[in-house]
Design goal:
Helices cover about 30% and strands about 25% of the residues. By secondary structure, the protein is an alpha+beta fold. The radius of gyration is 17 Å and the shape is globular.
Amino acid sequence: MIPGRRSVVLKSPREIEIMREANRHVAEILELMCAAAVPGASTWDLDQIARRELKARKVESPFLGYHGYPATVCASVNEEIVHGIPRKDKILADGDIIGIDFGVTYKGYVGDSARTIHVGNGPDPEAVKLVQITKQCLDDAIAVCTPEHRLSDIGRVVQTLAEAHGYGVVREFVGHGIGTRMHEDPQVPNYYDGPKKRLRPGLVIAIEPMLNLGSHEVRVLADGWTAVTKDGRWSAHFEDSIAITDGDPIVLSRPQTQWR
């Protein structure tokens, strides 16, 4: 999703705890969708799982209706980078990769996360490496989410690792602040574009590297949403919501056992 530009809003410990709960719902529902992303399933099926879970948990979708977006999930397959609209005729095949991007609004606060997974048992080694390195870019970015670092360090570490493996770093779509709105300031590029301010305790951001096997160039399909690689090569996308503290970051969208 495309962030807007407003002032930075720092969060209190109480607000961060609410966002942790929002992201717990996100992580659990994402896990259900990932388990259902098997050969023969459609991306529409994943959206239906999300809708059922949102209703059962009495939480809301920040995606549905956002600037007219028609679904609760972004499901992007192979050369689709981000914002893939779920469709009944978009059928997953063995060896595909799919990026699933999902969010929840809970008590007025938004959780947001994404992951790319392999479909079936026949992933191409090139695709396996792309997914692994994109995930590593996110982990490396989270590691510099401390007050000793600057916002620009996030993009620097992502770009350095990605380009060391020959991948294109998408520039048209970036990470973002998050809170009572899905997209708040600051923007969080996945590339280095000059020094930025230091990270401050209370800042909550969504970091989401998007790497392409080939060029970083993007085009948007006629539906006005689905972004694909211009050269048709595959792309991977990961995202976590992170709270900056006086010490180590809190990765809100993962269980604490999965980070440090």
